[in-house]
Design a protein that fits this description.
Elements (H helix, E strand, L loop, with lengths): L2 H13 L21 E3 L13 E6 L10 E3 L1 E16 L2 E5 L4 E4 L5 E18 H13 L2 H11 L8 E4 L6 H16 L5 H31 L2 H14 L5 H8 L6 H9 L3 H19 L4 H7 L5 H12 L3 H8 L14
Parallel strand pairs: 1-3
Antiparallel strand pairs: 2-7, 4-5, 4-6, 4-7, 6-8
Helix pairs in contact: 2-3, 2-5, 4-5
């Protein structure tokens, strides 16, 4: 059965629920549409067809009562048709057809589909499911690890959602996984729970692959020459203590991509740039002061004297002592080994 037919069947059943059978969550059941409701697994128990996993559609009828609410579980929204506006913790998000939005537990949100035929799929997943089934997958991927780990341990985050843009996703593969997830979810069979969990893991792999491309593209667009100059200036000023993590946080880049971007646009790796500034300062001190080599090593931020000697000799084919002696007899000796062009 094609995904279109499955979604149409779900839509019909959701609009015409069989009271004797499990039915999707209906927000009309909320008594106060102006309240911020916390919906936990206990109150949603009858809507979770499987342990820890609930699936339903967000249909246009839901827009009649726009309830700012939150869950005690993760929610993954897929805009199957049309568009959607979602407000998460007062941040307005525009979602296009094919986009995913993942919200962590306790994110206050108000999703609204745009258009009479708009349709979105909601996949609800408890914290227990992530800890039990997805944690190894998550921890192996730095892109998602912080988001999920912070959410599971209730650490306050700057942003309680992730958007996976459709333009970076393989929609054919995505829809194939969704079709199989829905088919398995609504038709009881042997090992149903395990199969759905495995398929969800595969879906998250596809989302992660797309998100990686999305981050790379966004970083390239944002990595202007002005930013590059600012980053180099920051490294020059703070070379003693900087790390990839500290610089990434300062300039709001992902730590996985900042080194590759620097390499692409300068031809030098992060460590090479930092080491260049250290050696440059060391050469200045050797030329202009009488500080001992040991003091210079400490002054420029090296903790290992032997390592300093190795990198210095590799750069200049001489020891620091030899450099100091020769600098006074040769005005042509290049004593600034690293200079950013």
């Amino acid at each position: 059965m094609e995904l279109d037919k499955i979604m149409d069947t779900m839509l019909h059943q959701q609009r015409n629920p069989d009271r004797e059978k499990l039915k999707p969550f209906q927000p009309e059941e909320l008594k106060n549409p102006h309240a911020r409701w916390r919906i936990n697994k206990e109150s949603m128990g009858k809507y979770f067809k499987l342990n820890d996993i609930g699936i339903n559609l967000h249909i246009p009828e839901f827009n009649k009562i726009q309830v700012a609410h939150k869950h005690s579980f993760f929610e993954l929204i897929y805009v199957y048709r049309g568009r959607m506006k979602n407000q998460v913790d007062r941040i307005k998000i525009d979602l296009e057809q094919g986009d995913f939005c993942l919200m962590n537990p306790d994110a206050i949100h108000t999703p609204v589909t745009i258009g009479e035929n708009a349709l979105a799929l909601n996949i609800l997943m408890t914290n227990d499911l992530f800890e039990k089934s997805f944690m190894n997958l998550i921890l192996d991927n730095q892109l998602l690890a912080n988001f999920f780990v912070d959410s599971l341990f209730q650490k306050k985050q700057e942003k309680n959602y992730l958007v996976f843009s459709q333009q970076y996703l393989n929609q054919t593969t995505i829809q194939e996984y969704l079709k199989r997830i829905l088919t398995e979810y609504f038709h009881t069979a042997l090992y149903q729970q395990s199969v759905v969990e495995s398929l969800l893991s595969c879906l998250f792999v596809e989302l992660t692959r797309g998100y990686q491309k999305q981050l790379e593209d966004t970083s390239r667009k944002e990595f202007s020459k002005a930013n590059l100059s600012n980053i180099i200036a920051y490294l020059a000023e703070n070379y003693k203590t900087v790390t990839v993590q500290s610089v990434s946080e300062h300039f709001n880049y992902h730590p996985k991509y900042l080194p590759s971007l620097l390499k692409k646009y300068t031809g030098k790796g992060f460590s090479d740039i930092v080491q260049g500034f250290k050696l440059s300062h060391a050469c200045q001190l050797l030329k202009q002061t009488d500080l001992s080599i040991a003091d210079i090593v400490e002054e420029v931020g090296y903790s290992n004297r032997s390592y300093f000697y190795r990198v210095f000799q590799k750069q200049y084919q001489m020891t620091p002592s030899e450099y100091r002696k020769r600098i006074h007899t040769s005005t042509n000796l290049e004593h600034f080994p690293y200079e950013f062009q």
